[in-house]
Design a protein that fits this description.
By secondary structure, the chain is of the alpha+beta class. It has 7 helices and 14 strands. α1 (52-65) links the parallel β1 and β2 (68-72). The chain binds N-oxalylglycine and nickel (II) ion (NI).
């Protein structure tokens, strides 16, 4: 339990050696990298009107270019986002003894509070965060494993999960339209899993030396993120750039499975998280993923006769296992590379 970052970060003035990234990986001066100008902010309240075609085109260009966009007026109320953020502030601010009962290094636990990445690394480099992890869908199969404190955890996170799921399916349908495949294509097996991960990044005395999350792409289909302050960066055109924190906007990123299914027409966004020396950051991350038994491969309708098929077929379960093993070994998860033809 002593490994939880929140229990000791206040007592150090320098970063312990096993949190210091090598010179080529640490952010250094890039913690203040300029904001990426190519991440469009899409107003979803306009999507059912005359601007629909233009909005979908904008999403498709962003998905090809950076793999990321933001959405506003998305239907998840500001009150619910505030309640969820506040709930996790309360959770992470609980005394260490109260959080200890939730701490687990066993990845098969339905609900877990963990530190660094999947687990604290005795040998190797750790990342500057603690996280809560659990599944959300279907709600009735999962909610019993969630904590009873803070008191409204199940109620608030339950409502948030349901609303974010609806949003994710709306966005996936816009992507279907952009790709020219039938609406609802992603609505069943391909979006069955919904993992919720809430990261807490405390202030760090030497933010140039550490990362909150190392450079990676997500293993899921689609990722939807709320952030309270700056910290997320995207790798684009050979450099790290900031993702602007817009109050209540969701950052949407294309993940590995969408890159495969679209045969590379959509790009899985490479991103990381930097820390700062003054304020805690919280991010609410929803990963929408295929069921474990799903077979993932480029959709045939998306590979034209003149085009090469770019990826092998695989079972999502196998992909996820390799991705997790790469993550445990701190390999920066180049998992998708192994499936390229
Ligand atoms: C992740 C991730 C970003 C963030 O959990 O995969 O990229 O801002 N998180 O916490
Ligand atoms: Ni990520």
């Amino acid at each position: 339990m002593s490994t939880l970052l929140s229990s000791w970060y206040r007592s150090v003035e320098t970063v312990p050696a096993n949190y210091v990234f090598s010179e080529d990986k640490r952010p250094g001066g890039d913690i203040a990298a300029p904001v990426c100008k190519d991440i469009p902010v899409i107003d979803l309240s306009r999507v059912d009107g005359i601007d629909r075609h233009e909005i979908i085109q904008k999403i498709m260009v962003a998905n090809q270019d950076s793999g990321m966009f933001q959405v506003i007026n998305h239907g998840v109320s500001e009150e619910l986002v505030d309640e969820t953020m506040n709930l996790f502030e309360e959770f992470f601010n609980m005394p260490t003894e109260d959080k200890a009962i939730y701490y687990s290094e066993d990845g098969s636990n339905a609900f877990r509070l963990c530190t660094s990445s999947l687990n604290y690394r005795k040998d190797g480099i750790n990342t500057w965060k603690d996280s809560v992890k659990h599944d959300c869908h279907p709600l009735e199969d999962n909610i019993q494993s969630w904590p009873e404190r803070p008191a409204r955890y199940r109620e608030v996170v339950g409502a948030y999960s349901v609303e974010v799921r609806k949003l994710s399916l709306r966005i996936l349908d816009l992507i279907c339209e952009g790709l020219g495949i039938e609406l609802g294509y992603f609505g069943d097996e391909l979006s069955k899993l919904q993992d919720f991960v809430v990261h807490h990044y405390p202030p760090c005395p030497e933010p140039g030396l550490v990362l909150g999350v190392g450079s990676h792409t997500d293993a899921s289909l689609l990722t939807l993120l709320q952030q309270n302050i700056y910290g997320l960066q995207i790798f684009k055109d050979g450099q790290w750039l900031g993702v602007e924190p817009i109050p209540y906007a969701f950052v949407i990123n294309i993940s590995d499975q969408l890159e495969v299914i679209s045969n590379g027409k959509l790009k899985s966004a490479r991103h990381r998280v930097v820390t700062n020396d003054s304020v805690s950051r919280i991010s609410l991350v929803t990963f929408i993923s295929p069921s474990l038994e799903s077979i993932i491969e480029p959709e045939k309708a998306l590979v034209s006769a003149s085009e090469l098929r770019l990826f092998k077929s695989f079972r999502y379960k196998e992909y996820r296992a390799i991705y997790m093993a790469n993550l445990r070994e701190g390999k920066g998860t180049p998992t998708l590379e192994a499936y390229k033809l």
